[in-house]
Amino acid sequence: MLDSKPIHIGAGKIAAAKEKVYILEKKSANAKMGFTPWELAELKKSSENGGIAILRSEKETKIVVQIDKLAKDSMAKSKEECRRKGATLFKETKKFQIENLCITSYLSEHSLSLCLAEGIVLSNYQFLTYKSVKTKSYLKKLTIDDTRIKAAEFTELNEVLTGVYFARTLVNEPVITLTAERLSQEIKKLGKAANFSVKVLDKKEIMKEKMGGLLAVNSGSQLPPTFTILEHKPKNAKNKKPYVLVGKGVVYDTGGLSLKPTAGSMDSMKSDMAGAAAVVGAIYAIAKNNLPIHVVGLIPATDNRPGEMAYTPGDVITLRGGITVEVLNTDAEGRLILGDALDYAKKYNPELVLDLATLTGAQVMAIGQYGAAIMGSAPQDVKNQLSAVGYDTHERVAEMPFWDEYDDLIKSDIADIKNIGGREGGCITAGKFLARFTDYPWIHLDIAGPSFLTSPEHYKTKGGTGYGVRLLYQFLKSKI
Question: Which option is the CATH number for 159-477: 3.40.630.10, 3.40.50.200, 3.40.50.300, 2.60.120.380?
Answer without folding.
Answer: 3.40.630.10
